Amino acid sequence: MSSPGRPKGESLGARHAATPVSAPQTLTREGIAALIPHSGTMCLLSCLLEWDLQRIVCLATNHRDANHPLRTRTGLLSPCAIEYAAQAMALHGALIGQDAGTAASPGYLASARGVRLHLLRLDDLPLDADPSQPDALRIEAIRQSGNASQILYAFSVSHAGRPVADGRAAVVLNTALST
Predict the structure, then answer these.
(1) In what order do the strands lie in the sheet with 150-159?
(2) Which domains does the chain possess?
(3) Measured by CB atoms within 10 angstroms of the end CB, which terminus of the chain is less buried, N or C?
(4) Which residues neighbour 3 within 8 Å (Cβ) at sequence distance 6 or greater?
């Protein structure tokens, strides 16, 4: 995703300096499923590549699965990329909580804004010309701002170096209700 102020081809987090963390730097699908509220086939992320206090990068390899839980009769439609990004954001919150020694506050996707879908489906993406590259969706989310009750992320989903979807998402944290 390219935007004003960022050179074309530069990832969302390319200019971001890593913030040291003590929680695991990489995780498999099983480790991810233990930290987010999605289980079974609804845990869409395959692995955590890297993260710090502002950014997370994950991979997902199930986009061609005929039994994908979000697949319709016509295939896995590109708006499902938002769910992949939302799960990366949930994992990011859980890792931050783990790093701080506290439980993460559950969050809910409140809105997705400025979303650009660059194609119709996720299950028929062209394979990378380099067979050594994984057939994976790359999900990146960067925390833009936030407080104890809400967080704003920018996200991008790509495949084989090509954009699939990008936008912003607001997450509302499960905070006590005022009476």
Answers:
(1) 27-28, 47-51, 55-60, 137-146, 150-159, 162-173, 107-117
(2) 27-173 (3.10.129.10)
(3) C
(4) none
